[in-house]
Amino acid sequence: TGWHGSEFWHLLGYLRQHENHGGPVTERVKAYARDERSPHRRLLAQAWQEALDTGLTEETSILQNGSFENGAAVATHWGSWIVSTGSIERTTEISRSGDASLLVNRLERGGPLQIFPVRAGLIAAQAHYYTPPSTTSGTITMSLQLRNSRGERLFSCSSGSRTLADTAGEWAALELFGDVPAEIDGQELVEARLVITVDNAKDAQVYIDDVRVHQFAFQEDTDSTGASEESPDLLLNSGFEAVESHIPDAWSTTAANRENRLVSASSLVAHTGEQSLRFTNDGSAYQMAWQDVSVEGNTVYELTAWVRGDAAAMANLYVEFYSELSRAGYLRGRGIDFDGLSSEWREVKINVQAPAAAAYARVYLRSKGQGDVFFDDVSFRRLVR
Predict the structure, then answer these.
(1) Most CB within 10 Å of its CB: which of 36, 65, 284, 333?
(2) Do 59 and 298 touch, CB atoms closer than 8 A?
(3) Residue 315: enclosing H or E segment and its boundaries?
(4) Considering just the CA atoms, what is the radius of gyration of the chain in Å?
(5) What is the pTM of this model?
(6) What residue ranges of the chain have pLDDT lower than 70?
(7) Domain 224-382 - what CATH class?
(8) Closest-CA residue to 373 (of 239, 252, 264)
(9) At what angle are helices 24-34 and 39-54 packed, to 10 degrees?
(10) Which helix (H) or strand (E) holds 50?
């Protein structure tokens, strides 16, 4: 696939550990995510950026029951590949997170598997495993098999084999990162089979937990035909023509922005109609306006806007998802910065996937830097395949 799994996961681990609230490497990743000169590097940076925004948790995983919390002796949604001697069963004896894990007990060869749908685009997988300190034998490997609609394997990739004794007594990880093509030899790829294989471990116990597989929302239906003309705009007053006390109707902003007119309707310029939404930046934190809309879980949405502004300023599209509109109901958020602004109007967009539990989205228009930024003709639509 031309990608290095260790590169993706190692840098992600560094950013989480050392730059959880931002830093120079994080800023470089953001810059690469906007740089169109190197498509390969830009895709990788966009994947890192989305991974930081979403956390790549079980909630965002396309794999089901990856923490093995559901089930009895058998973990829900999981099957077994081979089982020569020994057993595979759900256990609450040891876990990396939550209350349960999957125990591969004294197995000569075999392991758990799960089949799930995939689409074309980048894919990242990670599985954690633990063996007792006394472990001396056995290896473990994670493989991803891409299959057609008949369940025939067209391609497979692997994390590489790990010797269990090398990490005995501590949790370790198997990692994959690659690119799923739309088809191979004219056959469409529609599903994947993830297998975690344990070999020559008839004297060992292997605990598996926190298995995740992620595909990235920024690549979902990014072609121009992805959004149906019948898909309605969920935002009200998205052209900012209706205004009450300099703030467009249906839109909210902070008290400071309202009082200081840092966010306000403006008739200075407009993409269409008579007005746009103007952000006045002074180099401090984001200025912002937002609107809440109802959404469906496990659905991809596209946020689009037309922007123009001063070269020293930056526009930002950001979406937060909630199960209920409260701090406790927050699920996740994702946004992208757009720099290189000018006096010419420019269309910008971001695709975001609502988590399964999402009922609401808070759609933000934001800006920072120095100078003015204008937004107009904003839309937030459900993408229809």
Answers:
(1) 65
(2) no
(3) strand 313-322
(4) 24
(5) 0.60
(6) 1-6, 218-230, 384-385
(7) mainly beta
(8) 264
(9) 130
(10) helix 39-54
Spatial CA neighbour of 176 closest among 196, 200, 198: 196
Written in H, E and C, the secondary structure of 324-369 is: CCCHHHEEEEEEEEECCCCCCCEEEEEEEECCCCCCEEEEEEEEEE
Separation of alpha carbons 93 and 99, rounded Å: 8
Q: How many residues would you count in the chain? A: 385
Domain ranges of the chain: 5-47, 58-219, 224-382
> What's the pLDDT at 312?
92
Q: What tokens were used for 148?
A: 């057609």
72: tokens are 């009895």
What is the model's pLDDT at position 222? Answer: 41
- The C-alpha atoms of residue 215 and residue 353 are separated, in whole angstroms, by 10
Tokens of 64: 């089901």
Which two tokens mark 95?
A: 């876990």
Dmax (CA) for the chain in angstroms is: 76
Helix residue ranges per DSSP H, 55-152: none
Q: What is the pLDDT of residue 4?
A: 54
Tokens found for residue 238: 């998205």
Spatial separation of the C-alpha atoms in residues 230 and 308, rounded to whole Å:
28
Residue 329's Cα: distance from chain center in Å? Answer: 19
Same fold, 58-219 and 224-382: yes
The residues near 372 (Cβ < 8 Å, ≥ 6 apart) are 278, 279, 280, 281, 309, 310, 313
Q: How far apart are CA 250 and CA 277, in angstroms?
A: 13
How far apart (Å, rounded) are the C-alpha atoms in residues 122 and 44? Answer: 9
* CA end-to-end span of the chain: 26
- CA atoms of 266 and 286, how far apart (whole Å): 19
Task: Let me know how many helices (H) and strands (E) the chain has, helices first.
Answer: 4, 22
Looking at domain 58-219, does it have CATH number 2.60.120.260?
Answer: yes
CA dihedral (31, 35, 41, 45) positive or negative: positive
